[in-house]
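Example 335, ligand phosphoric acid mono(formamide)ester.
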Amino acid sequence: MKYFTTINDIKNAEDLITEALNLKKDPFGFSHLGKNKTLGIIFMNPSLRTRLSTQKAAQNLGMNTVVMNFNQEGWALEYNDGAVMNGNTVEHIKDAAAVMGTYCDIIAIRCFPSLKNRQEDYSEKILLQFMKYCNKPVISLESATLHPLQSLADMMTIEENKPTNRKPKVVLTWAPHIKPLPQAVANSFCEWVKTRDVDFVIAHPKGYDLCDDFTSNVTITNNQDEALLDADFVYVKNWSSFIDYGTMPEVNDNWLLNENKMSLTNHAQLMHCLPVRRNVEVIDSLLDNNRSLILKQAENRVFAAQAVLKQMLETNYKIEEKFTITSNEAELCNS
Ligand code: CP
């Protein structure tokens, strides 16, 4: 594996989920693989789970890690080719990424969207430039449009907790929030859950449609109660508008997930990627009861990252003369 930025970068989702579940049973079985290898972990945005789980995953494989919060600790980056850098930006991404590539064997990067310019965000400008110039395998730690490590951990969690006597019903429901959030977790969840043998339904208020590229062939409703009927898993997540990009269209109905709404489900298990705004998105009693999977999802982040790193280390990646990429092409969703 050379890149892990979308499900399209991997050959087989089932195999990767199984690999991650096996690593959970034997975390140190491949601690020789990463000897004398360095993982560079770059954050343009805050993180708890992604930062610590990725470091732990690398350490379980015997890798060294170097971590940098670019936005707080690095030089202000320039992203535009040919820019005359006589303003606030100090270092071009092509130089920063190339330098990181000389220090590291694999690079992992978090780069959130601006939520101001849909075309620019959905072109994955920052991620693609980093991939182009660092010339090393790259793992997305959540990009402008996708969060694949979260989704891999979520698929592991569903696999571990699914009913054995029927095809599970999985509901992704929009939840309220106090500020606009990216669509990345929801987009990614759609990409991954569509590969599973489940009935999948998305519920969101009017104005919160996700990009068609991710929701094609999925049942979508604006009626949360209808979606929750007989659900086995309820994944709660806020996202801002894709259509009126980055805004928060007014919602009159109550979308806060509470006990009454959960009573419509088939004794469903609750999922959330965290961090969660308690009593804004979901009420405390649902997050804290034994049907909540939030800590299991967070725990599985370690083994999701470990499975991806393991496959990259095993690939014995060789630098190619020419940068090529088949996924996340610049025209994605830029209509
Ligand atoms: N779920 C997740 O990505 O958490 P962090 O933002 O804390 O890394």
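Summary: The pocket of phosphoric acid mono(formamide)ester is lined by residues 47-50, 142, 150, 273-275 (CB under 6 Å).
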